[in-house]
Design goal:
Thrombin, subunit H
Length: 101
Amino acid sequence: MIIVRHNDVVFLLSKKVDYDDLGNVIETEDERMIYANQMAVSMKEFYEAGNKGTRPEKQFEDYAFEYGFETHLKHEGKKYKILRTATIGDKTRLICEKVIS
């Protein structure tokens, strides 16, 4: 049995919408830290995404119960958009593209 350790720190990002006393919308971004394994993006994944106009740069694998359908994550201080997810057993893979601001 192979034991895989989740050594990379990843912050899953979710948006929270609140309202002030005047009813104005205030959006904040919540971060939730998880541990994941960084994996290489396969050539097939890279070229298929390129045909759709996206550029996957990183892929992470974490436990499926930790992923809450967030659309963005942060790794090593850089923000990424989650392009696609794949759940295999008790693991979820997050295929990500760097966000250029």
